[in-house]
Amino acid sequence: MDKIIIDGGARLSGQVRCSGAKNAALPLLAATLLTDQACILENVPRLKDVITIGQLLGKLGSRLEYQDKSTLTIQTPHLDAYEAPYDLVRTMRASVLVMGPLLARGGKAKVSLPGGCAIGARPINLHLKGFEKMGAKVSLEQGYVLLEAERLHGARITLDLPTVTGTENLLMAAVLAEGQTIIENAAREPEISDLALMLIDMGAQIQGIGSDHLVIDGVESLQGVKHRIIPDRIEAGTLMLAAAVTGGDVTITDCNPNHLIALSVRLRETGVEVEEGSDTIRVKSDGQRNRAVSITTAPYPGFPTDMQAQWMVLMSLAEGTSLISETVFENRFMHVLELDRMGADITIDGHSALVRGVEHLSGAPVMATDLRASASLILAGLAADGTTEVSRIYHLDRGYEHLEEKLTGLGAKIRRVKA
Ligand code: EPZ
């Protein structure tokens, strides 16, 4: 398994481009199942998860072809299968996103239950409850969910929680259902709006985009589309914090500052300068220790849970004590023990972590446990004195496109070695 080795201490500077959003690319790719016509996706990030969902779609009958390194043509003339097998779903739980399109277009789906993952149980009960309300018959068999529906019909669905992929799954089911579907307490992440906009360009009728109240009037069929994927706000946020933890001056291009307001506001409170352009963000730190700023994660537009681990690194080096509360997932503090091994002073108490800022972190061999934890360990290595070795970085490759190359371009002393 590859490792990433970082010699800490370099202050990052320069410009870096933000890639397309992983968490938009996955539902957008699943949505192409809803038509038999060709779809073209631009700004596709080259990530393990995108490759995985491409493999899954290939099994279902899709033909995928890269026009260039980030433009993908995908067409599913007819569905050859309806099953998302365990070996794929267990490596990427977002495979559940094929449920909605398979049900909507082919009337059935057989998807392995994703099971838990490092950060929590992550059930999909709300997805299934919504499909049942739309007329699907749902049964569980040998670890698989079987869904069947002659034709889905509209329904009023009130989500107990603003589930992101749950909202996406039900939205994709509703666009071809008979009649009107209302999704209340829908998640409002920008990736959902990006999906809705592409569906509208395919001929869907959706109102309330960006709100927690979506109204969808089903149509008979959808046509092909050309769509550019929005920038990855979590990659951009991670790069912003890489600048902040190293006392650097970095401009991130091809990003959308409006998707990062909760992070930018908190970052300014720590004393870091954040300048927003139309599609750029500049993060400038004077190299002084940052003020400690507590955060609580929340569904969009609140502070993103996917930035919690990275924020913790900044707070580990801040002047003072901060409280970091994780309200979205029940087990998203596994990076804490690794950061403590690098000299951080963090104490977990239930869903909160108390972070007492220290002057320095020291490099150490550490192990990644999940995608965003791996990013936080890299940020810690950039800021630490000495050398840090991050193992199990297959987690990182799921969600970041050549992160070590991007950081090298900003002056980081970082390299990947084949272990
Ligand atoms: C999406 O996961 C993202 N993944 C996650 O990003 C992100 O952390 C999460 O949303 C929250 O923003 C993709 O978009 C592919 P949820 P998702 O359903 O949809 C509970 C990353 O690092 N819940 O919004 O799986 C659930 O247990 C990944 O890029 C139910 O109880 O998250 C969790 O506590 C990690 N029942 C909460 O809701 C359900 O049916 C939010 O989960 C569904 C969810």
What does this protein structure show overall?
There is one protein chain. The strands form 6 sheets. Strands 22-23-1-24 form a 4-stranded mixed beta sheet. By secondary structure, it is α/β, with parallel strands linked by helices. It has helices at residues 22-31, 48-60, 86-89, 99-106, 125-133, 164-174, 190-201, 233-245, 261-269, 308-316, 334-341, 371-383, 394-397, 403-408; strands at residues 3-7, 13-17, 39-42, 63-68, 71-75, 83-84, 108-112, 137-141, 144-148, 156-158, 180-184, 205-207, 213-217, 225-228, 249-253, 273-276, 280-284, 295-296, 321-325, 345-349, 352-356, 365-367, 387-391, 413-417. A hairpin with a 2-residue loop joins strand 8 and strand 9 (144-148). The structure holds ligand EPZ. Ligand EPZ binds next to helix 1, helix 5, helix 6 and helix 12.
Write out key terms for the chains shown.
alpha/beta, 24 strands, four-stranded mixed β-sheet, binds ligand EPZ
